[in-house]
Amino acid sequence: MTTEFLNGVEAALASVTDAARAPAMRAYMRGQFDFLGVGTPQRRAAAKPQIRALKGADADQLLAHARALWRLPQREYHYVALDLLALHWKELAVSDIPALLELVQDKSWWDSVDALAGIIGDVLRGQHDYMDAALQDKNIWVRRIALLHQLGWRDKTDVQRLFSYSLALAHEKEFFIQKAIGWALRDYARHAPDAVRSFTHKEKERLAPLSFREANKHIGVSADIRTRAQP
């Protein structure tokens, strides 16, 4: 069945490939991946029938299809795998998180990792299994997943975990970690701006400037903080 699915996806993408676009797409990803030359809208429309046809497939089947796509060299196939998992995430269980983390560590870059962060967050649905260990993983992309897994959770966010994770990795110089800390805090600030403002100003000396700026990008400074800052 996996071979049939792959053949269907390959044929679908071949029908919308524009090879002239591939060099620019490769350059945008700093030359790390080959591309067919298929834009996002065209890819999603072309692969939609194959992905929807998997309705009723179990987690093992879905992950097998995703892994098969991941083994192909062109980046568009990895995106189809992500679209597949994003559409059928309800078929996945918390016990499938290790399999998703394996994908995180293969052909890693911000585009695939951030998409997987959203899928993992959906699967966890208010739980945090594997995330404490992920925070301490030697792979920076796995650590980024730990920081981002609560994106969009709003009032379901474990605030203590969000803040403690941010401080645990605040010392890192890696851009993608500093950026993720700021992104995670900024996302929660949409729900609780005062909490994020208070935390980031209290811990400003520990947070990287990039993390601090990103966290506070849309919330400004409270009147209380302005008053305390006056001589």
UniProtKB/TrEMBL annotation:
Protein name: DNA alkylation repair protein
InterPro entries recorded: ARM-type_fold, DNA_alkylation
Top-rank lineage group of the source organism: Bacteria
Lineage: Bacteria, Pseudomonadati, Pseudomonadota, Betaproteobacteria, Burkholderiales
Pfam entry (one): DNA_alkylation
Source organism per UniProt: Duganella aquatilis
Database matches in Gene3D superfamilies: ARM repeat domains, Hypothetical protein (EF3068)
